[in-house]
C-alpha cells in the first residue's frame, strides 16, 4: 500500500502560511531591521530553526512574503499565467492594453505596495535588504521586457523598444508608487496616472 503523505504536506503548507503571515505583520509593523526570526517564529507557533530551515534567514523570508503578496497566494503559478493578466494578453488595441496594464499594475501595487514602502524606507541599511531590492528590480525588468516586446511585435510602441522597456520599468517601480502615496494618492489615482502616461509616452 502506497504511503499517503497528504496530511503531512497539508501540515507543512499550514506551517508555511502561518510563518509568512507572521512575517508580513512583523515587517509592516517593525520594519526590516526590527523584525527578528525569533519573533516571527513565536508569532507563528514554530521554532526559529523551522523558519531558518524553510527560508534560510530574514532576507529569504522577506522574498517569500513579497512573492506571496505579488501573486495573491502561495500557488506555484507565474504571475503572467494568472487569470488577472488575461486582459493584458488579450487586449486588441493600445487603449485596451493601457487600461488593462494599468489595472494590473494597480492590483499588484495594492498587494505588495505597503511592504515595499517599508523596504524602500530602509534601503542602504542592510546588504541583504539591498540585495532583495536588486532582485525585485531585476524581476520587474523581466516583466517590463516581456510586455514591451509583445507590444513591439504588434506595432504598438511609440519609440525605441529598449527605451520603452526602461520607461515602463521605471513607471511601475514601487519607489514611484511610494512617492505618490506620500502625497496622498490613492490606488485609483495611480491607475489613472499610469494609464494616461502609458498612452502618452510608450504606446502609439
From TrEMBL:
GO terms for molecular function: DNA-binding transcription factor activity; transcription cis-regulatory region binding. InterPro entries: Homeodomain-like_sf, HTH-type_TetR-like_transc_reg, HTH_TetR. Residues 36-55 bind DNA. Keywords: DNA-binding, Transcription, Transcription regulation. It holds the Pfam family TetR_N. PROSITE patterns: HTH_TETR_2. Residues 13-73 form the HTH tetR-type domain. This is Helix-turn-helix transcriptional regulator. It comes from Cryptosporangium phraense.
